[in-house]
Every structure is written in structure tokens, then in C-alpha cells.
Specification:
The structure is a homodimer of 163-residue chains. Chain A is α/β, with parallel strands linked by helices. Chain A has one domain (22-161): Carbonic anhydrase (Beta-carbonic Anhydrase, Chain A), CATH 3.40.1050.10. Helix content of chain A is 36%, strand content 20%. Chain A has helices at residues 3-16, 43-47, 66-78, 99-110, 124-137, and strands spanning 31-36, 54-59, 83-89, 145-152, 157-161. In chain A, strands 2-1-3-4-5 form a five-stranded mixed sheet, covered by helices on one side. The longest helix of chain A is centred in the first third of the chain and has 14 residues, at 3-16. Chain A is globular and about 50 Å long. At the A-B interface, helix 1, helix 2, strand 2, helix 3 and helix 4 of A face helix 1, helix 2, strand 2, helix 3 and helix 4 of B.
């Protein structure tokens, strides 16, 4: 069966046992999680969350971009979240990525320049700290509680990074 | 117990039964899902995914931003995904959002201008179609398979939007 059709079959099974149709848009735990798109991170499972508990923002690296700030602003200002949990992880595809090499490849293959930075990460702890700084220094984000972690994809464990 | 401490306790329980520590970074299903940060959408559950299956990108609205394109480029070019599934949803906080009103509030409360568009959505189907167009027209994204859906938060069901 083609990939997406199998997902739709899975969704039909999910919908048959669906029991959370009365949840509001505002997250029950007033929580927002920003993390990497990495396939190994099932955010709901690793944090023991249920449908309706938390906004989840994900991008390559779990870095704080302008789009993350937009989403967090909406999350806090319009939907009442108060706590931010930032999670980056071991063995991330963005670690030690050679951006210059990728740029040269794109230029030679597609004949155009990449219009964005890739967001390569050199050092995980430093990157989480930089993310925490970006979050707490933004005038558009409330910093009631902002916590940063590194997720170990080999053990399933979260390690806190001190601010 | 404070919110984040409870999540860490949940994580310890998850790590104790952790059995997927040998998964590679490249998604097993060569799949990338772009969707909204909405708390009611547990992507793994609604699509029947397992750890390691798919990259998940999430932002306010599940819209195609420059940061989405960055993440998808990384997902395809560096980690080999081929299929993109775009999912927006009913009762989204971005639907009929009055951006001008929010801007005026921020200016009056914080004395500064919001430096980004909020990405309000007027019509869901049109918005998914616009997202599909943005994805298939980007020179940095392979369009081997791109599918768009609306997720109904009342029924748990996905409805496909024709391209």
C-alpha cells in the first residue's frame, strides 16, 4: 500500500476510537514545547503528555527562529500558555553540519543560492543556552518559566541545561 | 508538583521502558509531516506513526514559512525524506484572527511593533491549497509526493484537500 494511504487507514482506526472531541484550543497544562523535527522524538510520549496538554513547535534543530517566536507569541498571547520547554537532542542532523559545503552543492546542482541559513549546531549545550537567551530576551515572549533540555536518543532521557 | 518536574518524572518512566535506542536519524518511512502546534494534535497517534518513522515540523497554523522550507530542505536533502504531508485543522487559533487588532494591542502595551506577520488563516481549504502551492513551487524542495489535509478536531478524522 502506498505510504500516505496507509497513514489514512491508520487515521480511520484512530478516529473510530476518538474520545477527545470536546477539548478546547488552549492547552490544559499552559505548556509550550519547542523541539527538533527528529523522527525519534515522540514529544507526547517522552513527556507523558495527552491530547490537549501542550502546544508543540518543531523545526530542524529545535532552534529559536523568527517563526518560533511568532508561534510562541500566538501560544502565549492568544492561547494562554505560560511555560516554555526547549528540547534539543544528541545525534541531531544539524550537529557539525557543513553549511558552506551544502551551499556550494545547491549552487552547483540547482544554479541558485539557498535563501536561508541552515541553522547548524556546533555544541549542544551552548545551542540550548543560546536558545534560552533568545527566548528570555525577546520583548514578545513572557518568561514566566523557560527550561532547556538535551534529549538523549540512545536512552530516552532528558538532561537539563542550566540557564 | 510543579509542571515541568511532573514532565521529568513522566520522562523517567518513559526512559525505563525505552527500547528504540538504535534508530537512525533518517526517517524509516521517508516521510515529513508539517502541521499546526495545536495541543489536540498528537501527530504520531493520528497517523499511526512510531518513533523513527517521520520528521514532524509544527508551527502556529501549520503554514509554509521560510523556516518550514529550511526544515524541509534539511529533511529531504540531508536525511532522505520523499513524501510531504501537510495538515491544517478545524477550530485553529489562526482562523479569522484579527492581526491588526493584535498589532495595535502590542504597540499600546509594549510600545513596540510586532516584527513578524502572525499568519492568520481566512479559509482552511484555501490555506492548505496555498501551502501545497508554496511547497511544490519552491526550487529547494523535491515534489515527489505532496499531500494536503484538514484534520477535524471534533472527530479525529483527516479530510484530503485536492491540489
Amino acid at each position: 500500500m502506498p505510504r500516505v494511504d496507509r497513514l489514512l487507514e491508520n487515521n480511520r482506526a484512530y478516529a473510530e476510537n476518538f474520545a477527545s472531541g470536546d477539548l478546547p484550543a488552549s492547552p490544559a497544562q499552559k505548556l509550550m514545547v519547542l523541539t527538533c523535527m527528529d523522527a525519534r522524538i515522540d514529544v507526547y510520549k517522552i513527556l507523558g503528555l495527552r491530547e490537549g496538554d501542550a502546544h508543540i513547535i518543531r523545526n530542524a534543530g529545535g532552534i529559536v527562529t523568527e517563526d518560533s517566536l511568532r508561534s510562541i507569541f500566538v501560544s502565549q498571547k492568544l492561547l494562554g500558555t505560560e511555560t516554555i520547554v526547549l528540547i534539543q537532542h544528541t545525534e541531531c542532523g544539524m550537529l557539525n553540519l557543513d553549511e558552506d559545503l551544502v551551499r556550494r552543492q545547491v549552487r552547483s546542482e540547482a544554479g541558485v543560492d539557498l535563501p536561508f541559513d541552515l541553522g547548524a549546531i556546533e555544541d549542544l549545550e551552548q545551542s540550548v543556552r543560546r536558545g534560552l537567551d533568545a527566548l528570555t530576551s525577546s520583548p514578545f515572549i513572557n518568561d514566566k518559566e523557560v527550561r532547556g533540555f538535551i534529549y538523549d536518543v540512545r536512552t530516552g532521557t532528558l538532561l537539563e541545561v542550566a540557564d
